[in-house]
UniProtKB/TrEMBL annotation:
Its cofactor is Cu(2+). One of its GO terms (molecular function) is catechol oxidase activity. One of its GO terms (biological process) is pigment biosynthetic process. Cu cation B binds at residues 242, 246, 276. This is Tyrosinase copper-binding domain-containing protein. It comes from the Eukaryota.
Amino acid sequence: PIVTDVLCGKPNLPPNALPPYHCCPPVPASEPVDFKLPDPSEPLRTRRPARAAGSGAEEQHMAKYERAIALMKALPRSDPRSFFQQANVHCAYCTGAYRQAGYPGLPVQIHFSWLFFPYHRAYLYFFERIAGKLLGDPGFALPFWSWDVPEGMRMPLAFANASSPLYDPLRNANHVPHKLVDLDFMGAEKNYTDEQQIVHNLRIMYKQMISSASLASLFLGQPYRAGESDKPGAGTMEVYPHNTLHVWSGDISHPNNEDMGDNYSAGRDPLFYVHHANVDRLWEAWRHIRNNSFHVDFTDPDWLDSSFLFYDEEARLVRITVRDILDIEKLRYAYDGVDLPWLNARP
Ligand code: C2O
């Protein structure tokens, strides 16, 4: 298994990267503690859609997320729970700043392999609990950007308000706030009508979730083991809509398509976390679709025992394995509020 070493070093940033140029979290005072599941009596955090224009309940849900981001941004940068550090830890895991234990020459790269879904699930798990702690709300749940259903196919309105903590000036100005998403966007606008774009998007979902995703390795990504070089191959969902929506959201006039369009900077946009909540939700959806046919996730110990480091809501460094995060009910969260309209969108 790929085990993240506690030492974090210099990142390999793309040319013309924007500061900060260092992305390691604070050096821990002691060894990391092993992850423990939350108490089963904790309230279940139900993640709901962040719609472009929502009902009263959805707006309250977004307002809480907005407050949480403001509180995280207000923490000193030395605090591993601050927005600054939370954004940076993603950079550390995609630029070679974190290394494989026992292989100091090899990075822990959490993209383009079977680590993609589990790493991001663990990342959001801690992010959500930090937010809940700062809000004093143990039931706080992240909203998700439901770009796979027609009502969610625009950037949620709350992100476009320039005076909101959810705002990021480094976004594609042509895509906020009313443009429909293009789930396989590669840099060129398709100029479809809204109706054509929706049909196109639903077909893409069908392809990436069903027809091209019949095996764990096809959906989750290729095996990646200790001592091996990174990026053996991404799963369907990671390539698109996941990557394509990063590119769609970032500022295309910047050399690295910051913030969302490059991994080193993506966590700096509060949109990242609602985007990834949807990616995580679709992992659950894929498991449910597959459940009755055959074996779902990998059972390979090299996958199950791979581990990552995160700071938790008490600012303790925690080591968490893939095995730890496979049951979201045990993690005390759930998804609700949207259907899967693309189930019937076979092209
Ligand atoms: Cu770690 Cu959406 O990328």
